[in-house]
Write a structure and sequence with these properties.
Blueprint: H1 2-7, H2 10-15, H3 19-25, E1 47-48, E2 71-72, H4 78-81, H5 87-103, E3 108-109, H6 133-148, E4 153-159, E5 172-174, H7 177-184, H8 186-195, E6 199-202, E7 206-207, E8 210-211, H9 216-226, E9 232-235, H10 243-249, H11 261-271, H12 277-295, H13 305-319, E10 321-325, E11 337-341, E12 359-360, H14 366-369, E13 375-379, H15 391-403, E14 406-412, H16 431-443, E15 447-452, E16 467-470, H17 478-486, E17 518-520, H18 529-535, E18 552-560, E19 563-570, E20 576-585, E21 597-606, E22 611-617, E23 624-627, E24 632-635, E25 641-645
Parallel strand pairs: 1-3, 2-12, 3-4, 4-6, 5-7, 5-17, 6-9, 11-13, 11-14, 14-15, 15-16
Antiparallel strand pairs: 7-8, 10-16, 18-19, 19-22, 20-21, 20-25, 23-24
Helix pairs in contact: 3-11, 5-6, 5-13, 6-8, 13-17, 15-16
Length: about 650
């Protein structure tokens, strides 16, 4: 089949197309389909959201999820799956979604989304991996390789510096080149160099005053010339400002179509000589190349939703983060009388709102997933969908808490608190939840909190509860994952892919986020832990942090020219997985640099008492920084520190 593709003469096909057909190929047929040219054998193909499951809609689709899509499987969103720090797991997830796409005749999956979590307030953070560009790039590349192993394309997004929802269609992200190159670009760069996504999706916003959709420096100079991207660039839905200028800059495909309006502008520009026809031909060739990559490998197959539901559970189990476990309150024992409190126990929030919203065929909650012999009583306490303190519900919850040996409170953010299209205004849980948590702690000290949230929340009760499980948004099988971790059927192994600050005002972007036509990235490269560590600021829980039901010990760290090696031993009594994180520091740097930066990680499973050797290689990005004066990557001379960190 590959040989057949190589023999296809795309330039000959393009030479047989009319100007109208070529211009037409550069915009969508409708919300989800690209145009066909039947007489030349160019098939119509479909694209679909999204990053953590298929949201395949009919032609009347609306992109923001207001209309139902097909029944499908919702895998854990990126905010959770990134906490796995597990390339193999992410690749497996990608393979599964790729097979689902083949089963539903979808040629390109619109994801992954790798924008950096600059602020906890960004309404779409649940869809993004991390505050750290190295981690985001590594897990994105693994996911892309998984999807594309099934000959289904990905569309990595949103390129670039799209870090808020407020005025996302028009605001300008104002950042210096070093900040862009070191923080906001690397995840995209890694994805190109390690996975070569079939397509890129440009963002709505401007970058330093130029719309991403018509930014030649971004779409051609950096993406194609510097990194070697080979596929086509599509717009985010409605992100086109000036279509001809965009085409010249490197924007190949406009989505959705404009009912021919922008196609006509392209044709007019070619006819009057203001747009070279070879620019149009090049865009068409890029689009056709990706269309045929899918069409020539079309492989109809069964949509194995039940099997994929279990895969979604496994991903959630490998990703959830145990933040606190005082007095070994977890795991729970089936002999204990446990009260589950909170609407999320019965009606979990497991995905975010907007274009990635999946119409699930099945949802598992924690209450129904506990072991058969577990002694669990349930009290709603507060609703899952709004901030409402109900005296009757609260009273029932307090009675249940008094009567139980332990209480697990299922807290979190309702759907209305975070979604695509708007940002959060604060970092708090609903007041009704914090109030009831405080009341329960007065009558029951043995309390565990399970959080359902797409991004960090302030925890006023952090010192008074004995256990905290960060479940984030767990996908449709997340309830079963929570139950299995609470009862020790699964040993938690996730590590935070972002810092949880004590309060919102601690965030480095606090004074420069949100309002206005321009958003100044004044914190520069000091984003997330790069800021908190360098500032020596107290945080609730640091990036890379996570507990286990077992213990691990490191020894014999060796540093060589090509990387590090060390031995890791499970020193506890139960099997578990550990994530070794490699950080690089240059204490005597003459350049303003973060205290340390993540430059490698590996996840390994160890049986109780087992020891393994771990190797983490250096690469061409390990020691570099971007020098704006020379406009190039450089390596500063000096004595570097290499740290292997447990973060627990």
């Amino acid at each position: 089949m590959e040989e057949f593709i190589m023999k296809r003469d795309l330039k000959k096909i393009i030479s047989q197309m009319t100007l109208e057909e070529k211009a037409g190929m550069c915009s969508g047929l409708d919300f989800w389909h690209l145009k066909s040219v039947e007489r030349l054998g160019i098939p119509e193909v479909m694209v679909s959201d999204g990053p953590h499951g298929l949201r395949k809609q009919d032609d009347k689709g609306d992109h923001l999820g207001m209309n139902d899509s097909i029944k499908a499987v919702c895998f854990p969103p990126a905010a959770l799956s990134a906490c796995s720090f597990d390339r193999e797991l992410m690749e497996s997830m990608g393979e599964t979604i790729g097979r689902e796409a083949q089963a539903n005749d979808v040629s390109v999956v619109l994801g992954p989304a790798v924008n950096i979590k600059r602020s906890p307030l960004c309404g779409r953070n649940f869809e993004y991996y991390s505050e750290d560009p190295y981690l985001a790039g590594e897990v994105a590349a693994a996911f892309i390789n998984g999807v594309q192993s099934q000959h289904v394309g990905t569309s990595i997004k949103h390129f670039a510096a799209n870090n808020q929802e407020y005025h996302r269609m028009s605001n300008s992200s104002e950042a210096d080149e070093r900040t862009l190159r070191e923080i906001y670009f690397p995840a995209f760069e890694t994805a190109v160099k390690k996975a070569q996504p079939y397509t890129f999706m440009c963002s709505y916003n401007q970058i330093n005053g130029t719309f991403a959709s018509e930014n030649k420096w971004l779409l051609t100079d950096v993406l194609r010339n510097d990194w070697g991207f080979e596929g086509y660039v599509m717009s985010d839905w409605g992100a086109v400002n000036d279509r001809v200028k965009g085409l010249e800059a490197g924007l190949d495909l406009e989505m959705p179509g404009s009912n021919g309006t922008n196609d006509a502008l392209i044709m007019e520009a070619v006819k009057n000589g203001t747009l070279k026809e070879e620019v149009l031909d090049q865009a068409v060739e890029r689009i056709l190349n990706i269309i045929y990559k899918y069409a020539d490998h079309r492989a109809p197959q069964e949509f194995t939703m039940e099997k994929d539901h279990e895969e979604a559970r496994r991903i959630a189990e490998e990703s959830m983060v145990l933040l606190k476990n005082a007095d070994q309150i977890l795991p729970l024992k089936t002999s204990e009388k446990v009260a589950f409190v909170g609407g999320f126990a019965k009606k979990p929030r497991f995905q975010g709102g907007g274009s990635s919203h999946i119409n699930c065929f099945k949802i598992t909650n924690a209450l129904e997933a506990v072991p058969a012999d577990a002694q669990v009583i349930y009290a709603e306490g507060f609703p899952a969908d709004k901030d409402l303190y109900d005296e009757k519900l609260a009273s029932e919850a307090l009675q249940a808490a008094k009567a139980a040996d332990k209480v697990v409170i299922f807290a979190g953010l309702p759907d209305s608190f975070e979604s695509e299209g708007y940002d959060r205004s604060h970092m708090r849980l609903p007041e009704c939840q914090n109030r009831l948590i405080a009341e329960i702690l007065e009558v029951q000290p043995n309390t565990v909190i399970v959080l359902h949230n797409g991004s960090p929340v302030e925890m006023p009760w952090i010192n008074n509860v004995k256990g905290i499980l960060e479940a984030y948004l767990g996908g449709q099988a997340g309830g079963a994952a929570v139950a299995n971790i609470l009862y020790g059927i699964v040993n938690p192994s996730g590590k935070l892919a972002e810092t949880i600050p004590v309060k919102l005002a601690d965030n480095p972007s606090y004074l420069n986020f949100g309002g206005g036509d321009k958003v100044e990235y004044r914190e520069g490269v000091f984003v997330g832990y790069r800021y908190y560590d360098t500032k020596q600021m107290e945080v609730a829980y640091p990036f890379g942090y996570g507990l286990s039901y077992t213990t691990f010990a490191y020894r014999d760290l060796q540093v060589a020219d090509k990387g590090i090696s060390l031995k890791v031993k499970n020193t506890g009594t139960v099997d578990g997985s550990e994530i070794v994180q490699m950080y690089v520091a240059l204490p005597e740097s003459k350049v303003s640099r973060p205290e340390k930066e993540l430059k490698g990680f590996v996840k390994l499973h160890l049986k109780a008492g087992e020891e393994k050797e771990v190797r983490i290689p250096f690469d061409d990005k390990t020691f570099r920084f971007f020098n704006e004066r020379s406009g190039s990557w450089e390596q500063e001379e000096g004595t570097y520190q290499i740290l292997a960190d447990r973060k627990s």
